[in-house]
Amino acid sequence: RDEIKNGIYYFKESLFDAVPVVYRNLEDRIRDHYPTANITVPSFLKFGSWIGGDRDGNPNVTPETTELALRLQSRTTLQEYIKRLNVVFTHLTHSDQFTTPSREFTESLNQDENLRFEVFANNAVSYTHSPYQRKLAFMRFRIQQNLSKTRALLNDATTDTSKYAHCYASEADFLIDLTLIRDSLYSHGDHKIADLAIKDLIRQVESFGFYLMHLDVRQESTRHTEAVAEILQQSNTYMDYDSLDEDTRIKLLSDLIQHQCEGIKFDHDKLNDSNKETLEVFKVIEKMHDEISPRAFGEYVISMTHQASHILEVMLLATLVGLTGRKGSEADGEWFCKIRISPLFETIEDLNHIESVLTSLYDDETYKTLLGASGNMQEVMLGYSDSCKDGGILASSWQLFEAQQKAMNLADSHQIDCRLFHGRGGTIGRGGGPTHESILSQPEGTVHGQIKFTEQGEVLSNKYSNTETAVYELTLGVTGLMLASRYQILPGESTATEENMSIMREIMAHGESSYRQLTDNTDGFLDYFYEATPVSEIALMNIGSRPSHRKAGDRSKTSVRAIGWVFGWAQARQTLPAWYGIGTALQQWIGDDESRLEKLRDMYQNWPYFKALLSNTEMALYKADMRTAKEYSELCLSDEVGQKIYAMIRDEHDRTLEITLKVSNMSHLLDDIPPLALSLMRRDPYLDPLNHIQIKLLKRYRDESLSEEERKKWLNPLLRSINAVAAGMRNTG
Question: 2-208: what CATH class?
């Protein structure tokens, strides 16, 4: 509940007010440059969240949690609308003696008169001769009914809501009333008043609806496979679904969905607890779709998507609860689909298979029909964190680049709209970096006027704590999107030439080999990670919503989550997930050929992707401190392991630093961004002693010669030191 409220906080604090300002600024600039054009700016900014919806590896997120998240979001939105209706009410004091509202407005007001006894029964003033205020009073009453209903359901989810019969059925009805007022004001020449608070409120309703932000649901693919297998086993449709090959699974699932799961009979109560909960989530989606808004949910994200059947399994479960089907008879009824599925490709292997998985999916006529029924928009999520942990920053970055091209080209060939969802972390080692530059570095032709990306919890306070910074951050995103989309209307010569891409494939192979040599093939590396960083102690902190490891007690690279992976290295001032392998890769590709160095310099100057890659590398190198890292390496139980691994990291750090400066033609890191360099430099006098304190505390907390009680005394100061270093680095995971 606290995490849900924390996410909502930023909307109340800044985003609600920031959104209309962003649109006003954009409209002003358009008028400046195109004074004679009549250009309407649509409300295109949308917000999403999976706080309360992300159950991948988090047992604390239950179906009830998802309901709670949506109701808390809805309550906040309705409260904000009531505040703003009160402001609009004070502006629209027009008298019917001097103003003639539009015919459509008057008809709507007359229809509202059946509410007059409820609205004005205890009110000495009924605004009989103030048509806009009278209309707003009716609207405020109806929104208050929505709010009362939501509060009642928060107190008791089984409460009878029939007494709230006058509430708005959806945000669309509320928007109709607001638009009627605006258009009526236009009709009698009050354009300036219409373009103030009422226009801002319309923008807010178009952006936030009755749900505040679209709630994405995320679940791991094996949970759906297990649920489908047990359901089919119970119904004797297929006794051993697990033994079927991929082609047979696709055909079976497609046929079952096509016939709306005819013949599938199962007892929900006899399912195991895990599968019951998996199915219950789909029932919650159907329920909240009706209770809050058809737009309350965003996408259903499937983590660890390895094959097309993983998407069809989710569609089958959705069909079982009525989220998909036909209107009317099976023979000629029109298909409907109330769920949108986003497969998440997050490992290097998955990114390599993205084309084959999506091809199998798009070739299935049943899925393509349901996709069309939901708007013909396929979202594809790309995971930056796990791919980077898996194969290193170069392999991750380049495989993601090529995966985007493959996904968009494939969608175009099947006449499907495709939106890429970039699952970026807050740090460079998890795909983070400046928003504007990150958008511009996407492959040309993959940003079709829309983009979706994550903002991690640790960066929210820096970006959205007040309206001014929120406006700035949103504007960076909007301008980046506009520039990245310009190729749709202004085709130009691509900077991602075949030569550049061929070079990157060679560089990527060198980089991945170097990274895997360290992380997968060097004895003692994981011991070094757990002993020379505070990753185990980070797991004891009350931050994040998921365990630090996928499997408790498993110290493998695959088990540790990407957040803990990056967080641990950052605390020890090594930041290697963001740069390890780049120095070796560039150096090996250049060799002794000066012309190759010049080629990389040309790519740096003229290819946004390559420029962003090396610029982010510079920032991560600047935050690393190899002198401090050496002290952390001495925490290793084996001196030999500590010295060996540290030497490998130090050598690659120095190599990457040297070659990055050569390619960028700079004398020092971040020479091209002096304010950022100055900001980072000013932190060092505070960070250095904090790291030294943390090392001392780690030694004491880990000293098994001390009593348990004595060791526990050092835990709280140790956790505080982790918080302090994270604040100074402005990096967690």
Answer: mainly alpha
